[in-house]
Amino acid sequence: MRETAGRLSERLNWLVERVVALLMVLLVLDVWLGVIDRYLFHWQLPWPEVVARYLMIWAALLAVSCGIARREHIGLSILISRIPGPLRRIVLVSMDGVAFLLFFYIAWFGIGFAGGGASRQAMIFGMTLALPFAAIPVSAGLAMLQLVLTAIRDLGTQSLTGQAEA
């Protein structure tokens, strides 16, 4: 089961990393277009700044699950490294549980937030804000899934010293 969870986590992370990379490429191209527009062509395009904001939000929030999959998310490694082995395992599993509850809370209320965005419109595009706001529950759901998969994969045995060196 641990190997299966590890493979699923790896595959999901591979896909999300590619999506984040694509969003970052689009973000860079969009910002370049905005700069070229402003200083060279003077087209006065109203949308590059807004698109950049939405792309950045999606990329940053999706990248959270990538950090979780690699165990590169923020932790109290200085304190945890000083805890004896058996107790450390309990603390690490508990931290995964607390993080899962946090992301569940974010996803739960993010669904309502994204639903509320369906009735609001972006000023420039005339589109609803449901898609930009959906970044919150989607990324929290991915983070929860990665937390479960990595918790099963590691079972509280992840190395804290290897994280800093890697």
TrEMBL record:
Keywords: Cell inner membrane, Cell membrane, Membrane, Transmembrane, Transmembrane helix, Transport. Residues 31-155 form the Tripartite ATP-independent periplasmic transporters DctQ component domain. The keyword Cytoplasm does not apply. It comes from the Bacteria. Signal peptide: none annotated. The chain crosses the membrane at residues 12-36, 51-69, 90-111, 123-149. GO terms for molecular function: transmembrane transporter activity. One of its GO terms (biological process) is C4-dicarboxylate transport. One of its GO terms (cellular component) is plasma membrane. Pfam families: DctQ (PF04290). It is a multi-pass membrane protein. It is found in: Cell inner membrane. InterPro entries: DctQ (IPR055348), TRAP_DctQ (IPR007387). Part of the tripartite ATP-independent periplasmic (TRAP) transport system. The complex comprises the extracytoplasmic solute receptor protein and the two transmembrane proteins. Belongs to the TRAP transporter small permease family. This is TRAP transporter small permease protein.
